[in-house]
Prior knowledge:
The chain is of the alpha+beta class. The chain is about 20% helix and about 30% strand.
Amino acid sequence: MSKVEIKDRFYVNGEPLQILSGAIHYFRVVPEYWRDRLEKLKNMGCNTVETYIPWNFHEPKKGVFEWDGIHDFCKFIEIAQELGLYLIIRPSPYICAEWEWGGLPSWLLAEPGMKLRCSYEPYLKHITDYYNQLIPKLVPYQIDNGGQIILIQVENEYGYYGDDTAYLQYLADLMRKLGITVPFVTSDGPWFKNIFTAGQLEGALPTGNFGSGCEWQFKNMKKMMPENLPLMNMEFWAGWFDAWGNKKKKASKLPINKLDYDYVVKNGHNINIYMFHGGTNFGFMNGSNYYGKLTPDTTSYDYDAPLSEDGKLTKKYFTFRNIIKNRKGDAAVPDINFSTKIESRAFGKISWTEKANLFENLECISSPLHSICPLSMEEAGQSTGYILYRTNMKDDVAAKELIFKKCADRVHAFANGNKVFTAFDKEICSEQKGHWPLTFKEGKNWKINSEPGAQLDFLVENMGRVNFGHKLEEQKKGIYEEILINTHCHYNWNIFTLPLDEAQMTELKNKGKWTTSADSNAAQHPENPAFFRFNFDLSLTDGVYSDTYLDFAGWGKGCVFVNGFNIGRFWEIGPQKTLYIPGPLLKNGKNEIIIFETEGKRNNSIILCDKMKWMK
């Protein structure tokens, strides 16, 4: 029976192993490309692949589990094993990863008093229910069961968040009970002792997460670890992620990356490149950070990684490959004939042919929930996307001003179908000193000036729940306390959930009210949120996937569906200027793209080009 041991080094079947790993998140790559990305990892000289498993990706609703298609991590593991790669698995419950709420399922927020990432019994009960489904799927792939999984991580960067060692022990004990036998690891930033040691667990190897200064970091780590244990950088940040509103794409300094990576390989330490291949935040699954303001992450998770978002080999890739070859020998770096044939193609300009106004189709795609007070997105049973709150003023009452007590993240206000204002983050709820009402710290007066008896609509977008730090428990979305209209709380609302999931988009396509671009009605309320349909034919090369890139110049903000698959958000503020469309999403013959746009900034067309574009 094969086994892995941690002594002065890592040992597999008694033979020493230097772990040279790269991170690939199966959930950020279409399944048809898993083999391609893993082949390119092995071709660079890595012997191990690391991936997270996001809880919210696999249990989007309590007790509802998804394991097929892009959710089938077992298939991903099997491909890695076929290629002879070892695996490091980081199986939640929290992953960070610039992923929506760090992988935590949003339905936790619907429970009053929920406490996260600690020994809070209701939270532990939910984890137990989830692990009872998840962990048995991993057990057969462990190295001592004939598979290639060599390490399992307990939690993730816990020292940044808390110090409840009993919580970490609960996770470890639960996984052992369910059949995990390979060694455990933890990972934390090694800069401060109180952080690095708070995340440690007896019996689990501590590892560090850092992007530069590897020699100093390892020396510092060694002081805070049990003696004679191997050193590992679990997240070597050879790049970084991007946020909407950045002036340009984030990029690392390759000469520094080169020095650090060479130091680690030369000295026999262990390293996992985060990310080797970043991929894409499909759908609404990007996370956000909050340091004084909300900064949602872009759809692209390119990460300036050795393998680009679309799977191309970069200068960084060849730099790292040469280091491995020089330090480990030619045999460590195989020349692989990549089995998946992929090309980048430009298909040119495509004009939209039909439009569906959101308000005209609201009740076609969403049944309203009636509530005295506004309900948060989570209380309404929704995780991501948009949510609309509708109310009517009395016939003899005009709305003059309003105050949101709690609203996140971005809201468009309408009176009788006319847009009144758009507000984002602190613009929605910010302190107004010297103005009524002084008792509401976050109150801000917004002018409405509607007609008496007006219908008021508030379309709220979840821009991505914060994935790191101590705001994790403050991530309710939508409007989740009363709205004050004309100085007092306003009651009686209809709430329309708009996850824009497959079922909802199918209803819109089949039963929605669509107008053509030539229809005069298409010009009514041109600023209002609307869906735009593009129908087009493609002639694709047999046996070759044709990647392309949607240039959204001239469009304001929204999301894009390609043949029913949500490829992610766009926003004119950049720095991302195109959306990546993986070839497997396209079909030979008829294709459909639907754009949902919320700002009233639209072009007559889009362009499908042959490369990614960023602000410079």
